[in-house]
Design brief:
TIM Barrel; eight-stranded parallel beta barrel; 41% helix; globular
Length: 277
């Protein structure tokens, strides 16, 4: 860590680390996280005080226009993660490992996690799944790469689920999720994302684990919350999950600005004399 990003100097931002996230849980301070896919957005989010920036494989949907997250490649994730890592000074930057970049075997998973850290400059990686991937998680953590887990609705498994409905509503699946959460903690994850599960179950799991639990559609009882930035800004409008709060309607504002530009160009009102050389 360079001196500019280190804590202790007047006026400098204190860098969020995995250890700091654990301390935040211990003192009851909620963790605020959002997704980022480019340098400009990363700088704005960092300036706003986000604790965690997730370079999510959701880039496949909100940037690339795909129907699911499964198509995004490792090379594409490295590209976007590098842009975000270069723009964030304070926030912890976590890079999603995309579908089939860690499921084949632990050696390949380790190589791809290492590329995320070395080539893109992220500080941690995220994987989806429970007990079956714990050996892989342990392998990655053992070489010094922090891993964030992800349970509940795991978008990379959408073709298996066949639906984006709430997960773990039945006792058997809820019990498995509890086991998966404990197994991931034992494997060494520094944090866990719970997506679209009953709020009471998420609160129970958050209270039972020592690592921070960050919810998305999992109620207010988690140690933190994350949303897709394009969703909460009202930019991505193809569908709106119940758990998304629109903090702005920037999609409408942007379309209005674009239309205004077109009108001014067509009417020869842009550029003006003051905007010319």
């Amino acid at each position: 860590m360079n001196d500019r990003r280190a804590a202790g100097e007047p006026g400098e931002k204190r860098k969020v680390t995995t250890a700091e996230l654990k301390r935040m849980k211990e003192r009851g301070e909620p963790i605020a996280a959002l997704t980022a896919y480019d340098h400009t957005m990363a700088r704005l989010l960092d300036e706003a005080g986000l604790d965690v920036l997730l370079v999510g494989d959701s880039v496949a949907m909100v940037v690339q226009g795909r129907e699911t997250t499964v198509s995004v490649t490792m090379e594409q994730m490295l590209y976007h993660a590098g842009l975000v890592a270069a723009g964030a000074e304070r926030a912890l930057v976590v890079g999603d490992l995309p579908f089939m970049s860690y499921q084949v075997n632990a050696d390949e998973a380790l190589r791809n996690a290492g590329r995320m850290v070395k080539e893109a400059g992220v500080e941690a990686v995220k994987v989806e799944g429970g007990e079956p991937i714990c050996a892989t998680v342990r392998r990655i953590v053992d070489v010094g790469i922090p891993v964030m887990g992800h349970l509940g609705l795991t978008p990379q498994s959408i073709h298996k689920f066949g639906t984006y409905q709430v997960r773990a509503t039945e006792p058997e699946e809820a019990d498995q999720l509890r086991r998966d959460a404990r197994a991931l903690q034992d494997a060494g994850v520094f944090a866990l994302v719970l997506e679209k599960i009953p709020a009471t179950l998420a609160q129970e799991i958050s209270a039972s684990l020592a690592v921070p639990v960050i919810g998305i559609g999992a109620g207010a009882g988690c140690d933190g919350q994350i949303l897709v930035t394009h969703d909460m800004l009202g930019i991505y409008n193809r569908f709106r999950p119940r758990f998304v709060r629109r903090y702005a309607q920037l999609g409408e504002v942007m379309v209005g600005a674009f239309q205004h530009f077109v009108t001014d160009v067509k009417a020869r009102r842009f550029p003006s004399a003051a905007e010319s050389y």
